[in-house]
Amino acid sequence: MRQLTALDAQFLHAESPTTTAHVAGVAIVDPGDAAAGRITKGTLVALLRRRAHLAPALRLRLAGVPFGLDLPYWAEDPGFDPADHVYETTLPAPELLTDVVARLHERRLSRHRPLWEMHLIHGLEHGRVAIYTKVHHCAIDGVSGAETLAALLDLAPGGPEPACAPPPADPVTAPGTLGMLAGAAVNSMTHPLRALGSLRRTAADLDAVPIAATLPGARWVARAARLLGGEAGRAPALPSLEVPRTPLTGPVSGQRRFAYGSLPLADIRRVGRAFGMSVNDVVMAMCAAALRAWLAERDVLPDRPLIAAVPVAARARTDGRGPGAVGNRISAMAAPIATHLADPLERLLSTREAMRAAKRRFASSPATWLSDLSALLPPPVTALATASVFRLAGLACPPVNLIVSNVPGPRVPLYLCGGKVVAYYPMSVVTDLSGGLSVTCFSYDGSLDFGLLACPRHVDDVWRLLGHLRAALDELSALAGPAPEPAAETAKETVPA
Q1: Inter-CA distances, 375 with 6, 137, 207, 261, 387, Å
Q2: What are phi and psi of 131, to 5 degrees?
Q3: Which of 137, 191, 340, 468 is catalytic?
Q4: Start and end of every O-acyltransferase WSD1 C-terminal domain (predicted)?
């Protein structure tokens, strides 16, 4: 019996007519090595039938508690058939792949079956196909999403072919109606005590929580809470998290725009080595440069840094869930990125120091505030209020300007249904609370594959922003000095739409 956490349920409640809460990715596949040199819906469905037992998120559906009195449960879908989730189409000329994918990403998933879809799209250049897959964020985070994807992939064109999935030895079931109501009654009575614990932990991290960190006295309250909890001196101070108003912030519409591209991971790592930075730090510096250029073009560049939400895997948490489990094990860091600095080197070093401070704070603190905030109010209240709170916060006091997420992936090529995966472009969410842009990247086979998702109300030319990211890497590479010869890794071909 598995019940959603308050954080998992928050992703459900955040959905509205203008907000979807699924994560997705677009795999570009060369079917040359596949059987008969092609990939069809039938071959995808056959693969899913063989391997769905390796990915619980594909088999489970939501079982709601009557009247929304408690958090939903996960349960095996007795009528599960992958064929009901897989669609096949050909790219209609003259539309771009990104236009089709953006429309697919706008649509909410049905909650009456497992929360995922897969779309096989033909008609790309060189006979390639695109496979767009989306899964609801209540079921996976970035890392578990990568694990789910890995269950379908092979290291060689003729990968292993496991037997069809056996019936689960211990199937996931939800309680009956009486059991749900009894559980809801118990959870309702004990909720105030749990909420007090969440409130204490949130207070200790108040200076790291977007919006709250800018309130008068937030740092004092956080220090006092840590002192009372015996954690005095463990949490380094953070820079200001005051969010500047830009075109990126504010309520979103229901429309989406998508752009994608690949950059050489070797160049990004070389910059990191030159300045003592991780790949993620360099990505943040690239985003700072790209966003500065984009905002300056529109004459709306603020005089203080933008604030980015950076999702972080919380895999070490002892919650009894192992690899492949359903749900989220994430937290988030809020970090300034130095869009206000004109000098490239100064901007790079400032971003490095901001990320170091954020990571030191994250390492020294439990960093559970994202889950704790989700658990403060009883489930019936959060179910009714979340979407409205997101909307109002987006209007009045947005907590961040954008989301920047980096998911580590494999360094070797992988194969799907015998076809080589050329690239994998991830897609995240945009919400009223987080703003109209999310930048997500996935390291794969020597490249960093970027997926930029935007609401056109805020970013109407997302391809222009992708171009600025490429220019930012060129700028940082120049600062790092000439590349060694021969290069350790080569740039992967950027796949045309």
Answers
A1: 5, 17, 19, 38, 15
A2: -125, 105
A3: 137
A4: 327-476
142-to-201, 351, 357, 426 alpha-carbon distances in Å = 25, 23, 23, 9
293-344 pLDDT tens trace? 999 999 999 999 999 999 988 754 444 444 456 888 888 889 999 999 999 9
Question: What token pair was written down for 156?
Answer: 């060689």
Element (H, E) at 352: helix 344-364
Q: In what order do the strands lie in the sheet with 415-416?
A: 86-90, 116-122, 129-136, 22-30, 419-427, 415-416
DSSP summary character for residue 94: T
284 in Cβ contact with 339 (< 8 Å): no
Dihedral of alpha carbons 406, 382, 434, 372, sign: negative
Residue 74 has, within 13 A of its CA and on its CB side, a CA count of: 22
Structure tokens at 113: 């079956």
DSSP string, 190-218: HHHHHHHHHHHHHHHTGGGSTTGGGSTTH
Give dist(CA 41, CA 23) in Å, integer: 22
Structure tokens given for 127 = 């006979």
CATH code at 2-178: 3.30.559.10
Identify the residue with better confidence: 164 or 144.
144
What is the arithmetic mean of pLDDT over 43-47? 95
d(CA 467, CA 424): 18
pLDDT at site 494: 47
Q: Are strands 129-136 and 257-264 parallel, antiparallel or unpaired?
A: unpaired
Asked if residue 490 has pLDDT above 70, the reply is no
**Is-catalytic flag, 340?**
no
**For the segment 432-475, what is each residue's pLDDT rounded down to a tens digit?**
999 999 999 999 999 999 999 999 999 999 999 999 999 999 99
Over 80: is that where the pLDDT of 170 sits?
Answer: no
Instruction: Bin 183: left if φ > 0, else alpha if -120 < ψ < 50, else beta.
Output: alpha
Cα 21 to Cα 102: distance, rounded to the nearest angstrom: 14
CA angle 200, 206, 209 (to 5 degrees): 125
Tell me the pTM.
Answer: 0.91
- What would the pLDDT profile of 183-225 be if each residue is shown by its tens digit? 999 999 999 999 999 998 888 888 888 888 888 888 888 888 8
